[in-house]
Amino acid sequence: MYHRVLPEEKTDGLQAGIYVKSKTFEAHLTFLKKHFEIISLSELYSNPSSPPYRKGEKSKKPWCILTFDDGWYDFYEYAFPLLKKFQAPATVFLPTDFIGTNKWFWTDRLAEIFLQKHKIISPVPPLVKGGLREVIEKLENLKGSLELRLERAIEILKAYREEEIEEILSALSARRNIDQDLPSRAFLSWEEVREMAQSGLISFGSHTASHRILTTLTDEEIWDELIRSKEKLIDEKVVDSSFIPFCYPNGNYNEKIEKMVKEAGYSLAVTTESGWNQFGSDPFIHKRIGIHQDISYTEAMFGCRIINLF
After folding, report:
1. pTM of the model
2. Which residues, other chains included, contact 14 with Cβ-Cβ below 8 Å and sequence gap of 6+?
3. Do 154 and 211 fall within a single domain?
4. In the prediction, which pLDDT does 114 show?
5. Domain CATH number, residue 245
6. What are φ and ψ of residue 277, in 5° steps?
7. How many CB atoms are closer than 10 A to CB 23?
């Protein structure tokens, strides 16, 4: 499970768990091609009960499937060329409301607020509800490095609904007189998605429509996220309607949500639960191994991470 691939000079201020550097990713691909057979999610789906065969011979390597969450623009700029170089297939999960727009995730807008050097110049706006005022003060008083404060702030806010998070971000920005509009687009365009789909190497799936954490939503809101995203992927002609995989935002799901994903017509789903998958396991709760720079920048660390030593 990857998110972003970036050159070193573009990693300042990012969450440590959100990216790998381009040179690191190239080293990962070298390692994986040597020790694994990299296949696509659709190949797993089309042959779920037996190992793959190549030219009449049984594969002697374990399978590896590469997935990328969120559909960042830098996937097209930095990851896609390396995947082509190594002829390694991958699946990208798209939050369809963000693709082809200038929108940013709230987590990145929060990071921009934390990065600003501006001092607090005003109190919490009086219209902010009491409970949220306490959250704002808690965020303001976090201790430690920028990275630690940001990680903790994100975990705190993930428990709240989207409209509450927006109210908190607006208040934090207002206190510092910060413009919340970020200067450049973060996500892929639909033209870029179609180009990569036509390459035959990159496939796409749903990461819902708005990337809201499903366990915080009503049943009606969950269903809207599932159907709206699926229909957009089909309308944009970037998926085969007979096979559309799904990725739970933040990995959050329960039995009810898993059932709804099936009923919405998705073919399988992936979580953020760490580990390997065995044949016969539930196809709607596939485990993945999260990979990011600070735990995988050497071959030894990468190998240890893959076999779940940490």
Report:
1. 0.88
2. 4, 6, 111
3. no
4. 83
5. 3.20.20.370
6. -110, 145
7. 13
